[in-house]
Amino acid sequence: MGSKERIQRQKEDTRKGILDAALQIVKHEGWNALSMRKIADAIEYTAPIIYEYFPNKEGLLIELTRQGYAILGKKIKKAQDSETEPAQQLEAMWMAYWQFAFNCKEMYQLMYGVDMNCCELKKSLPEAEYTTKLFSDAIDKLVTKEPRPEDIICLKYYTFWSVIHGLISINLTQKGTNEEINQQILRGAIQAIIRTIND
Amino acid sequence: MGSKERIQRQKEDTRKGILDAALQIVKHEGWNALSMRKIADAIEYTAPIIYEYFPNKEGLLIELTRQGYAILGKKIKKAQDSETEPAQQLEAMWMAYWQFAFNCKEMYQLMYGVDMNCCELKKSLPEAEYTTKLFSDAIDKLVTKEPRPEDIICLKYYTFWSVIHGLISINLTQKGTNEEINQQILRGAIQAIIRTIND
DNA sequence: TACATTTGCTTAACGGTGTTAGATTATTTT
DNA sequence: AAAATAATCTAACACCGTTAAGCAAATGTA
């Protein structure tokens, strides 16, 4: 009786449908417009159905957050693989991070709480740690001092992250930002931080 | 009959009471716990009363935002006045900005949409432009090139702001950040950006 | 003083939210 | 075909922001 697997597949489809519907609503109408009933409408069910796939709304958002980190991780890895020089790898990776923030603006807001109240416990998501590891390793390759101190990597990683996340946040919340200045700050900061890695 | 003035004063008191109550609730229970009914309870009225002082909840939040910018502006000005050297003034000002973010965490979240969905139209608040002007002028003092190009000031201002706001945001949303590393990044970045002002 | 009017405030409601329990329908098992 | 199980919906709860209607006390007017 292979119907068990078919039902399983159907369940996974509706689960995926819920997540997709949620993301579509958010992309078209913003985070404020997202409600359980509206998701249910989109998948042609009633709201309580969603609770058979997710414990509650926050659980659903956590899953979306996870997906976001998975996508971001892939983009960063791909950017890294597109270059051979460690410095250029690192720059490409942060540029991929930057592009993700604007291409998947809603996901980025959710993942990092930009103009939106993101879920607790998003700390210690394994998917999030993957991107951290990618960046840390890429920075590590640029450290010449031996033995390579862990502190320096952490310090530089957070410095990169601060300036880029900060610039993204400002762009997503404040209106009237200049794209040319964005690029100048972005490239300038990345280059400057790379140069100071071995001070 | 001076009762008109007394009534006026009472009205201003309750208006202030509403704002204070809102801030107290947020400080004790977080932004999610803030509701019109809870504010009304705190000031021993019922919810509709609030609508005689503010058009709606967003209007109330905008007023709180304004207060936040006013406080922040004062702190930054005070920091500037505490130093005489332009470079040290600028550093002191950004350190004041940093301290405000953690001393008035809830206000900062509201003003800049950190882990909270902040109100629209917070662009073009005159109170917000004051701090921008303070920083711009302080940077201007450090530019030696003549004529001082407006671009450079804008660029450097956003660079400062990005790294500091980014670091603040990360600290406010992510758990388990290291205070020593924070200070290293903060001071390091400020010094580094100051050094590059006249490149 | 007596009546009318305004003011201050509350109660009640509307439509929305996330969420849960109970009833109902459909499917599968016996 | 009957019983058991699964899938789904309806209805409700408690909350939210917000508005309209009503009440009661204070004020103005005759």
Automatic annotation (TrEMBL), chains A, B:
<feature type="domain" description="HTH tetR-type">
    <location>
        <begin position="12"/>
        <end position="72"/>
    </location>
</feature>
<dbReference type="Pfam" id="PF00440">
    <property type="entry name" value="TetR_N"/>
</dbReference>
<dbReference type="Pfam" id="PF13305">
    <property type="entry name" value="TetR_C_33"/>
</dbReference>
<keyword id="KW-0805">Transcription regulation</keyword>
<feature type="DNA-binding region" description="H-T-H motif">
    <location>
        <begin position="35"/>
        <end position="54"/>
    </location>
</feature>
<dbReference type="InterPro" id="IPR025996">
    <property type="entry name" value="MT1864/Rv1816-like_C"/>
</dbReference>
<dbReference type="InterPro" id="IPR009057">
    <property type="entry name" value="Homeodomain-like_sf"/>
</dbReference>
<dbReference type="InterPro" id="IPR036271">
    <property type="entry name" value="Tet_transcr_reg_TetR-rel_C_sf"/>
</dbReference>
<dbReference type="InterPro" id="IPR001647">
    <property type="entry name" value="HTH_TetR"/>
</dbReference>
<dbReference type="InterPro" id="IPR050109">
    <property type="entry name" value="HTH-type_TetR-like_transc_reg"/>
</dbReference>
<keyword id="KW-0804">Transcription</keyword>
<keyword id="KW-0238">DNA-binding</keyword>
<protein>
    <submittedName>
        <fullName>TetR/AcrR family transcriptional regulator</fullName>
    </submittedName>
</protein>
